[in-house]
Amino acid sequence: MTADPILQVEDMHLAFGGVKALRGVSFEVRRGEIFSVIGPNGAGKTVCLNCINGLYSPQQGRIRFGGKDLEGFKPYRRAALGISRTFQKIELFSGMTVLDNIRLGRHLHMKAGLLSGALYLGRVAREEIEHREFIEREIIDFLEMTHLRDKVVGMLPYGLQKRVELGRALALGPRLILLDEPMAGLNLEEVEDMARFIIDINEEERWRVTCLLVEHDMGVVMDISHRVAVLNFGEKIAEGTPDQVQADLLVHQAYLGEEEDVFTSRR
């Protein structure tokens, strides 16, 4: 695996009033890897993702993506650079179909102008057909949801809604995907499916997407991650391979009170 970093987070600080959510967090995500950020509740994991995709602006520090400084870039500009994400709490349009929700992730690739779009002229129709075919052939089929493409999302079980959100993130055609607790609320079978999808989008030639994963399921994290960073009270306390992190005394102290087999594989 190449050591070329696609994402660089340097000395990131963020406070909400007197609460310091991030205190000097730094790490690099290498192109082509699955890099996980773990830590107890309130450690600053989701805050970190929100800074990377532009929902929050750190008061200090620097974030680089593909060598480009992201300071001042709004979330939509970061998405245009190739950063997509899923959310800890599902953010889908529950009254729309699976297909329509995923199509929204393809919006940035639409080149037609306002007038031609309003009139639905030939170029717009051709463009929409091309994008729809890509979504149905590559994404919906890949995520094994062909039979659900016209179902209203709000009527689907929670685990399938998580899969739809992953599909929308893939529709962007990302270089980096931020995955915020994709296993949360899933049963064992659904966890295994989601882990398989993440491995595939990282490894398969048609995707080759770098993944930044925030997750509480330590078994999955240790199984699928190339490297892991550990946050505790807004500070990074460890970073390394899964084996190195599991052997770190500070990491065990941070998880004190968790079940003894917190790092044990579930797969």
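(the above was protein one; protein two follows)
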Amino acid sequence: MINLGEYNTLEILRDTEPGLFLGDGEDNEILLPNRYVPETFEIGDKIEVFAYLDNEERPVATTDKPYIKKGDFALLRCNQVTKFGAFLDWGLVKELFCPFKEQAFKMKAGGWYLVHCYLDEETERLVASSKTNHFLDNKELTVAQFDEVDLIVSHPSEIGMNVIVNNKHLGLVFNDDIYKDISVGDRLKGIVKKVRPDNKLDISLNQIGYRNIEPNAEHILFTLQDNSGYLPLHDKSDPEAIKEQLQMSKKSFKKAIGSLYKDRLITIEPEGIRLVD
């Protein structure tokens, strides 16, 4: 099977005037136009190509690498807007079409938009949608608290920045956790700070350096962040106060803050611990 919108490794079947015909071994063929034919090749060689529809809606292969493939998200530039919709630059000869109905906000030529690429079942064409939340699902999560994740910055809200998590889920980085300039389309690493009962994901951007520390220490760091960088707990605090605040024993707490202090991530004050800026 030759999959549109994806990379396919195909066999060179024959050399013709318009280019090479490639096959998948199941009697499916696709043309690789002359402009993409390698300088040297032999019939029977395997070649990796990207498959999509050309301007005449015919399946065609290319060795060019698009900026986005089916099922992915990417920040793309709008080249033009016509009465049919917007046409985006995705690195191939034929532009990627985004219908008006799939535009979260009306696109303008020269603007940059975060979009999802999918195969329209009715037209069998690859199209784009800037309504990215429609392609994310938090009903069944594939991540857990403290997991390191890949992020794409999606869109701002009043309380933070929405992010796409591992190309599957929607997460939120709260304003208090944003310590550097980030923009829509940025690709970042993050950590799942909290999984809420409704499966909403709180994401932290600035804990990557902590991923090798023990879970209790990491939990304390996240709790410090949620409390403006300070907790009124120390090695002489009542065990019940520690358990109520952090859900851990005093022994575990002392071990964790000792590790954090050694790594210079916190300071220990007479009445509590403070996150190092």
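Reviewer note on protein two: Residues 87 and 240 are 61 Å apart (CA to CA).
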